[in-house]
Structures are given as C-alpha cells and as structure tokens.
Amino acid sequence: MSRLESLQPPLPTEVHKGAWAKFDFQTDECLSLTRHLDDAACTASFLWDTWVPPHTKLLIARELNGNQHLAKKVVVFLAAGHDIGKHSSAFAAKVPSLKQHMERHGASFVNFNKHEAQSMPHGVVSAASFREWIANRGIPLNKNLSDEIAAIVGGHHGVFPPLAQVVQNPALKRDSRSHWGKDRFHYWDRAALTAQLSHDDYLALSQCAFSAPVQMILCGILIMADWISSNRELFPLTDDRDSNLRAELAFESLKFHEHWNPQEITDLLSLFASSFTLPDEAKPRPVQTTAMEIAHTADEPCLLLIEAPTGEGKTEAALAAAEILASRFSLSGVTIALPTCATSDAMLPRMLAWLSRRLPANSHADTVLSHGKAQFNEHYQSLFKPFKNGYSAIYDSETSTNVTFRPNSWFTGRKTSTLADFTLGTIDQVLFAALRSKHLVLRHLGFANKVIILDEVHAADAYMTVYLERCLTWFGALGVPVVALSATLPPQRRAGLLQAYRRGALSSKSIKYDDEQHASDCAMWSAESGYPLISCVTATTSELKVLAPSGRTQNFLIEYLGFETELLAHRIADEARFGGCIGVVCSTVDRAQSIYKDLLTLLDDDTELVLLHSRFLGFERRRIEKGLVERLGRNSSKRPHKLVVVSTQIIEQSMDIDFDLIFSDIAPIDLIFQRAGRLHRHERPNNERPARHQSARLIIAGCSEPTTDATPRIDNGSAAVYGKSILLRTLSTLLTHGKHVQSPTDVSPLVRATYDPQHEFFRTWTTDGLAADEEAEKIRKDQCERANDYLLPEPDSRPVWSKRKGGTLEAREETRGRAQVRDIEDSLEVILVRKNGTTFEVLPCSPKRAGEEIHFAHGIDDELAKTLAQSTVSLPSWVLRGKQGNQLFDSLEEDVFTADEVAALSRNKWLRGQLFIPLDLNNCANVAGLTIVYRQETGLHVSKNASPEIG
Length: 951
Known about the structure:
By secondary structure, the protein is an alpha/beta fold. The protein is 43% helix and 14% strand. The protein contains 37 helices and 29 strands. An eight-stranded mixed sheet has the order 5-10-4-11-12-3-13-14, with helices on both faces. It has a seven-stranded mixed sheet with strand order 17-18-16-19-20-15-21, with helices on both faces. Strands 22, 23, 24, 25 and 26 form a five-stranded mixed sheet that branches. The longest helix has 23 residues, at 766-788. Its EC number is 3.1.-.-, 3.6.4.-.
C-alpha cells in the first residue's frame, strides 16, 4: 500500500518555530517544512510502490541482505529528512517576513556574512545534521553507511558536496551549537518514525553498506520525490488535505504508466519471426541466432559485443537479444544509442515497428527521442498528436496490436528523458553517464532499469572511448546488460570494452579485478582473430564465438586513383558515362563541395548529381538523406540509371543504400570496410547493374598509389581528419594483402594487421611511419588526459563525496557536455534568415513560411519560431578560433538585432540564446571579415576576406 499510515503529527512549536520550506514572493503563500517533508515522504512511498522498477528495487535490496521492505523504509526516510537543513539560520533568513515570524516563535538567528551563508546550503546542512544525529542518538550505524546516507541527502540538488564542506565548516558548526542543531535532531527523529525504522532495522543497517551505484540510484529516487512534491500544481502551498491524499492525487494526475514487463522467452525462432517482418521461409542468420542463444543462457548480466559485416542484421540481433536479457533480469526498458542525430532519426521507425510487434495489445510505452534535434523530427512529434481516441497509436495489421507511444510529459525533460522505458538518441546521451554533471544520478537511475544497445561503437575515438569504457564499468556494476555493435573492431579496442564491463561487474560482487587477471583477459580477448565474432563477458565468465558464414560474401577490388585532386572529378565522370549509381566519400566538406563543382561541368546531361554533407540546413539534409534511402534502398522501385552522390562520412553511417561503384578518400581500414558495405550491398538482377560495374570496385583517392619504393603521399584533409599514422598503416596493410578483398574472410586479419602495435612498415616507409606513430601516440595520450578531467570515478563502496583520483564528484554543467564527451573543436550553429532592406524574411528555400516577413520585436507565432529554429547550419570550426572567433561572436551578438528585438527573442522558447546571420538577396553575408554564402545545391561556404567561387 502506498499510503504512509505512519505519518507523524507536527513538531511542537518550541521545536519547529514556524520553520518553512517553500515561499511564493508574488502571493506571500508559504509551505511549512514539516508539510514539505511529509509530502516528499508520501511521494517517495508512492514512487516505490507504483514506479520504481523491479530491477532497481533488487539492486537496492541486494545491499540490505535482500530486504526490500527495509529498502523502502530507507527511501522514505531519505525523503522525510532531505530538507531538514532548511531549518537553519542561513536558509530561514532568506525571507524577512518569515524570519520575523520564526523569531516570534522562539528562533534566535546566528548572523552570517554572505560568504558564510553561501558555504552552508541546506543540502550540506541536512548531510551534516544527519551525521550529528546518528552520533547524538547513539544509533548503531557504521561510519561508512552514515557517510553514504549523508552524501545522498547532501546531493539531492544534483551535486554531491565535498566532505570537507560538511565536516569542516566553521559557519555550520556555529549554527549547530545554537538551538538549530538540537531542533534538527527532532526533525530526524520524526523522519525515522515516519519511515518506521526500528531498533532491529538499525541493527540490520549496521551490517550493510551502499556501493556507489546504489548511492547514485537512491539519490536519483530522492530527487524524483523532491521534484514531484515541489511541483506547486500538484502540491499547492496552501492546501488543507493531508500529505497522503496530496500524493495520491498527484500520482493520479501524473499518470505514470506500467513498466514494460517482458515475458519469459522459450522459443527463439518464434520470437524472431514475431519481432520483424521477414520474407517467406526466411530464417535468422547465424549472428542473429547466436546472439539470441547467448542471451538466453546468460546467468548474469553481460556485455554482448557483436562484430559482423554491414547487412548481416546486427540491429535485429540486438533488439531480439535485448528482449531476452530484459526478461531474464527483470528489466523494463531499452536504450538505443547511435553516432549522430541523423542515424538516430533513421532508427526511430524501426524501433517503433519492433515495439509495436512485441508489446502487448493496447499497451502504452513511454518512448523518448533524446537528442538536441528531437523537436524537429516529424515522426517523433507525431507521437504527441491526438490519434482517434488516444495518442500516437501504431497499428500493425500483421500482429493486430495497438500500441501507444506518446511519452509521459514528465519524461520529456532534458534531465528526465532517460527515465522513460524506451529511449533512442545519440551516443552522447549514454556517455553523459560517465561525465561529472549536475543531476547525473537521474541518468543512472534511468539506465539501471534498461538493456543498453550501442550501435557503431567503432566510431568512438580515443577521447570518446575513455567515457565509453567508464560507462561500461558503471553498467557492469549496476547489473545492466549491454549489446554493442560494430562492423569490426581493432583487437585492443575489443579487449578494452570487455574488460571495462567486467571490472564493473566484479565490483558489484566486491571482487577486485587484479592486474594479473586483467592482463590474462586482455591477452585472450585480443588474440581471437575469427570473424564474424560475438564476445560475451560477465563478472565470472567470458565467451568468444566465431560464427559460421551466413552465405553472404562480398568480393571487391581496390584501385588507387592517385594523389592529384584534379584526377578525381575526371575519373568519376568517366565512370559515370557507363551508367549506374556511384558514391563518392570525401574526408572534408570543402573537398566534397569542390568535387561537386567540378562535376557540374564534367558529367553528361543525363547524369544526376547529388551533394550531401553536414553544412546544409537541417531540413535540406533530411530531405537529401530521405531521398537517397528511398531511391537506393533495398526495395526501391525508383533506382536511378545514372546518379553520382558526393558526400562526406555521413554516407557510411546507418544508411541502408547500395552503390554500383564507390570512390573513397583514403581512410582507416575499418572505415574502408564500412564504406565497402554500401558497395553492391543488396542482391539485384544482373541487368540492374551496368556491365562496367558488374564487379564491385572501391577506388581510393587522396593518396598516391602505395609501392614499396617510397612512403605514399596523403592528402592534407584526410591526414587532418584521421591522422597520418593510421592512414599509412592502412596503405601498408592493403599493399601487403593485394587489391582483391573478400568480406568477411579478410576483415579481421586486415584490421588486426593495421592496428597491431608492432606493425612493421616497409623499409622505405620506416622513418615516416614511425614518426607518424609517435605523433599519433602523443595525440592519443593528450585525448585521454583531457577526457579524464571530467570523468566520473570508477564505482566502489566509498561515499560518493569522497576525494578520488580525478577530484571530487563536483558537477560540470551539461550544456557543454557534448564538447566534453566528444573530442571536437567548439562548433556553432546559427540560424540563417534573409534581410531585404530593413526587413527580415524566412529563407525562400524553407519548406514552411518561405519568404514571409519576420517582425521579431513584435513577437512571432510559435510555428514561425519553430520554422526559424529549423533553419540552422553549422559553421566550420576554423572560424571560431582565437581573435576571429571573438570578432564573430561580438558581431552576431551586437550588430544583428535592435534591443527590442533581442528582448523579444529572449522570451521565445524556440529562439532564445540563438545567433542569427542575415543573408542578402544573393544569399551572402559579410560578417567579422568573413564572407558567408548559402546555396541550396551546395550548402554553406565560408571564406576569409574574399568571396568564394561558387558554381
């Protein structure tokens, strides 16, 4: 039962002295401290009984000898005492009228200066007073548990305070020596009675300790209880109803849905057939069958790492395995993370289709798309629109199910999205779980209840890998299964991911992962050379399974075009005359735009030309990507006869498209295979591919053809993006192997040889190769060191406020989180508008409200504001460096709008904080010494001190 029948009567006046917790300066309404503590305690009780997922309860109870009843008491106790620190001189004096009221009831205020008052926020006071109460009342808690509970209480505003601020705080000690300290003891007595903590409970607790993961989870539940009970619409400041009724009505209003409860899986083939739309008589491929079998026999939560070629059905394998793992370990959600917003958007329909086939009929699934552009995804936004008698229902005629995906509004916030059962977003959203940031505990609370699917983990560089591995360690400690997918991984990277998860899984069992075992594991996991490969690791077991070929093989020929840039466009045009669909993958946007410009004059009139890169307006890029998938996808009936697509690396990420021929700038060997996965990807009748392209070829540009005579030359753009070391290693490996490549047979050996720490260059390459390796190692170490600046410490049993390697667990603001979990230079998105004389207009190419006048100072309607917010484009990173960047920011912030327009923009939820660049009627602008041009065909061009040539 959720109601707290043990709620205590208010404290006597001589103790509470009119203490308050909430105040509204507009209405002068006030909420007493005891009422807010009761509201929070009742909310915590309702949360435990109606929302806290089963796996989360088990995690907490596991550290209380399996006693879930005691676990609930602890949760209620934390909520009943979290704000006791508001009964202090520093907090109670914040409202003069309430201070006077408390003085009339016997309060005697200690005078603090501003610095002293700031040193004792009420969370710190709550933590300190809890420790003092334990000692004063002689309660038999061990010191570790006392500190762990104090840390949880102190962290209920999202930041765990440093221990020194709690125990060595002169101002706080002065406050505690007055009547305030003794009064707070009575509040803690009341909290313990509210939670019904008995002497036997204290004795049981004295034998326990909370690990860091459980401290994080408990703090997350406490924050949820505090946020809900602090919502003035749900808990008005003036209300005579008791806290039990207030909480009951609040939860009726919140309408939290039942969690997903996946049923036990007994028939794997039936599971797969009912999860996906398959051709008649189709059977799961080996990678899919094996992934399900391993998940089905797992006795402990595990990391399942799947390495297989593109097109093998890794996504379907991951989703099926996730449902099996969820059913085995009482989990009730799934998180899917991909490299980019675009790849996440492409996954959304597939995820919803899978859920519609697997969830019970007429059920509701809280589903959140969690990336920075989610508000512009039309498919996702449609989930919020009324549909018949409900919201966002998806009807699948094959399964006769009607599933509603509209997410509960409480789970759509930036800091609460991970609490929804089903989330889909960029890898950043998962990596934030290892970034010291405010309210981090809510992410851990959300992830603790899910299976995590990480797609394309090979895309993580050294910097991101630091965060990825730390996330895996925490997931291991939380008992969260992870399914990670990759086309292929270097052996050392595979070993690093597996050992990171095992380290956390062992910590959950209080087993140290010693150096000898670590070295033995890494040697074993690195040695496996089979492919495709599924690796599975738990705390106590590991298994690496080399899979039988699915029968799907790919043979392609590698050719080299040469270093000279001008050769590339001419060769593309020559090949295009034979017909077919040709892909061109360039290392940089500038190079892609340049090649596109050259091809405009070289291609035959009947050859279509498309350009795709990251410097298109958001709606333009989505339109281009959608068109490519529709025309080059598996079941397309609109496949062009003559098409050239010039792109950057975007094209290699989660786009199910098929080219007859691919040109690629030199790239690391694993990305070469990734791009080759778009080459003859789908089975097609012979007459659909031109005779010239019946055999698959991948033509490498941006470097001279490798020979044993001399080190090959490499284009500066490719070297800047990937580093010269890995490109020389790739060319060395390919030269040794030869030009004929077969997947999957050759994938693992070639990747292994390229990334081998002892890789040997040809004698004539040695000097250049070793110098490049040395530079690469220097960059790698620098990335790792910088990543560690904001890295969450490893989980252990100490209080989460403890000082550890890397500093205390202070917060880092999440607004800069992307720059901290990805090693990218500062980037800047700006909104483009047109300026016609003194009038601003929507861009003519906008899909909505094109050319419409914009009157910023008078305020603009919501649809227009949203339209403008979608007209964003990224500036190249070089314009943000040094003096140039400062001049650009100053110009965009000071010279574009009047004061009235700036004030109006600051009040608009879509546009506040955004920077605008007004283009003239020729779509050009001169800003801070830069010439900026936008063309619908080619995207954004930026040059310094001169107008760029644009075709």
